[in-house]
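Let us work through a complete example step by step.
Step 1: write down the sequence.
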Amino acid sequence: MSDALINSLAAAVEARPDDLTLRLHLAEMLVAADRGPEAIGHAAQILAREPGHTGAQQVMSRALGGSTPAVTPQAPSTAPSPPPQAPATETSSPGVATEPPASTPGSATEPPPAPPERPAASGSGIDWAAMEEQFGDMVPPRFARADGEPDPVRGHADRSFDVERSAVTLADVGGMAEVKKRLEVSFLGPLRNPKLRSLFGKSLRGGLLLYGPPGCGKTFLARAVAGEMGAAFISLSITDVLNMWIGSSERNLHDLFESARGHAPCVLFLDEIDALGHKRSQLQSSMRTVVNQLLTELDGVDGGNDGVFVLAATNAPWDVDSALRRPGRLDRTVLVLPPDRPAREAILEYHLRDRPVAGIDLAAVAAATEHYSGADLAHLCETAAEYAMRDSIAAGEVRMISQADMLGAAQEVRPSTDAWFATARNVAMFANESGEYDDLAAYLKKRKIR
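Step 2: predict the structure and record it as tokens.
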């Protein structure tokens, strides 16, 4: 068998992974070329999509060294075919616990003793559990889970997520007066006043999209909202959702929202929403279905979202699918800007609280760090501490962190928000037809960034 032809077929399968006919043809050629482990991998992927695929089952059996009764070729079917009624003297597929015959025609040696009895998948004629033990290091184990065991990748349907109780409140958040006001009107106020909420017909469901330069406290603010209302807090990142198996990402997303509904009132925080809810026109089909599932969960079609407040954060709101931002979903948008001077003082004081300091004028340092993000300020304090520690090691005695260390660190650590505003400027000037970035345009005008 020509390796060049097999390599060409493998490249074609990689380009069209959902073409099961092409993948089956490649698996058959690999078996003919005595490359059984590779054929097993391709057959397993076919069976993961269509568990009753007869051709894939035959290739799997041949690759494992067993004999397979001749079966008339037919179109792949999603329903498993009934097991063939084999005569008592016919050799069974490898791994199936059956009573071996006294001798096997055409075999030079006696067959090995039958393994302990295992449950086989209905209609497959193959002991999937035994094959997982033998070939689990070469093939993902999903195809071997037809025996009722939990899915090793996706897990049980009642998958649990980390549900936190935040001790941080909005009082711990410096600045952000406009953001706090929007949160109070949209969710916190109605939650504290149930009678008024009922009078005005205000629902507790809703969503808020926080956007702005990185490191400005969007995640911290989400935790503060949960702590303010005494609600559960669930944080979601893209790694909690995406899975290589078809349908598993959508299932993970559904389980996440079900967990939030079960812990209502709950703040569900979707970090980096532009990665999970990217514009569908720019995505492949597999990711488009994830965005569709997110839209469905935000609508609460299968279960009410009352008591579930969705906070989403992104550095690139212009990459978020427009359907996610329509009324009833993430319908409110708030710009989270770098901290103002009082907020910078509070952030600096927090990061210097447990360090040895002497003679530091926080107001002067805050004045020298305009446009710095909260993360930049934390890094500045870390750098100043390094200066003092370096001198302490050299002198052999402890030297306190001084004003000179802080101002020297401010010269070394530059604000990271400038690059983001350079990108956002183009959006505010040339892609603001609907006025959704008016607050960003006003801030850029105030900073005279043109």
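Step 3: interpret the result. The CA atoms of residues 174 and 251 lie 38 Å apart.
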